[in-house]
Write a structure and sequence with these properties.
2 copies of one chain form a homodimer. The first copy, chain A, is of the alpha/beta class and 255 residues long. Chain A has 8 helices and 14 strands. In chain A, 28% of the residues lie in helices and 20% in strands. The termini of chain A are far apart. The relative contact order of chain A is 0.12.
Chain lengths: 255, 255
């Protein structure tokens, strides 16, 4: 166990990378690994660290339907967890769902008791189990408005069905581009882009592109340094920041 | 619904990409999406497709300990599922485990009833919950020998504790390289490599590097075309095949 000195008067100290647990707030007086979460300790300005800790901890709700793709949600779940966001899983009910026919998951919340979220996220893989369920779409429409909506892959169809993609530039899984265009003709659907950020609504391309979209959202709210640090920690070596489209309110106008 | 013609005499037909379900065997007479699994249909030689279908369907057991990292296992789970492998989750017991403090998972098997596997896979994130549990290590040592052992991130410590890394060249999570060297001094531990393949034992670097290692293992047993097709489908655009080390029996000799 390393000696911690939370009441330090030193200007710099060693802190673990944000893991979302209480140890994020512990100051250590030498490098090594955090004895609580196991993450590496890095030298930081105490003032900057305290400022970061006072940032609001964002609540992210992952809506997972039965049949959801594993990597669609697991990439963003990893990224948002390392950003220190408070991540939870919601589904139509609290009954177990099976992701990709393999992974049996127990949701924390149902649509009847899900708390308000800062980020509401949707994923592909049997997205029809959400889009064809009026109770789910009604929940998406009526849930307390989050700061950001985020979709990976064919999760975009869920946002579309809830009427949220009209007049926006968006993207989806490469094999579902035409289908999304037909389903939501008021949206401008782009292919060959990792993510499209409309300010409040971020849609990403398929499966592993969710990692890039999540890193972009972290960069947007916590800064590029934090996003780069997370990508490095995850050994997502080939990540290129900002490799997506950020649009102004006017359709298709890149910033 | 597309018309299927499994009894076709045609030389070519449209088949869905291998998803591991029965629809893998259905021949369609025009392109589109598989009405069963939703995957794109591609034109293939009927003879080649039948030959591929007769390949043994590999059984992959994912050992997941409480606290396992989500992306560590989700990347390989996605890759192996698309390769048509039969993937299942085993843990010490069938009680739910929580991955990364967020994702509550119900294992299909416990170490007491896990079936024999062709690939036995281990992952990082609280790996100590496995390495410090004599019953788990005994199971790893005594389980019917698979064709391949596969580890991602600090999952290498589980193989090491079971005595399987001696005299091999291996890798692990970038921040655990020194720790693995100290724990298993008979192993040659490399840094800055996405994966190391010793023939029967494949270890990968941290977290997202598991995707690369899994694609490598698919390439090894099903050929590069299948691995490239899966990477493309997953939109893992920047994947570079063979970006790892394949060693001969002699330590550190690259093929």
């Amino acid at each position: 166990m390393f000696p911690a000195f939370s009441q330090t008067k030193a200007k710099t100290a060693y802190f673990c990378e944000p893991c979302g647990n209480e140890c994020d707030r512990i100051a250590f007086n030498k490098p090594g690994k955090c004895p609580h979460c196991g993450m590496a300790l890095s030298l930081q300005s105490v003032a900057t660290h305290e400022k970061n800790m006072n940032l609001k901890r964002l609540k992210v709700l992952f809506y997972l339907q039965n049949g959801v793709e594993v990597l669609d949600f697991a990439g963003p779940m990893e990224v948002f967890s390392y950003a220190g966001f408070d991540v939870a899983v919601v589904s139509k009910t609290k009954d177990p769902i099976v992701a990709q026919g393999v992974l049996k998951i127990i949701p924390q919340y149902s649509i009847d008791d899900a708390p308000p979220a800062d980020i509401l996220a949707f994923f592909g893989g049997a997205a029809g189990n959400a889009t064809n369920d009026p109770a789910v779409i009604k929940w998406v429409q009526n849930a307390p408005k989050p700061e950001y909506y985020f979709s990976v892959c064919t999760g975009a169809f869920i946002l579309g069905k809830a009427g949220m993609l009209d007049n926006l530039t968006v993207t989806t899984f490469h094999e579902s581009i035409e289908e999304l265009r037909k389903a939501f003709p008021k949206a401008k659907v782009l292919s060959n882009v990792r993510f499209v950020d409309n300010g409040k609504i971020i849609t990403t391309a398929g499966i592993s592109a969710g990692i890039d979209g999540a890193l972009h959202l972290v960069e947007k709210v916590r800064g590029r340094d934090v996003a780069v640090q997370i990508a490095k920690y995850m050994e997502y070596d080939k990540w290129v920041p900002a490799q997506g489209l950020v649009v102004d309110k006017q359709i298709g106008t890149a910033k």
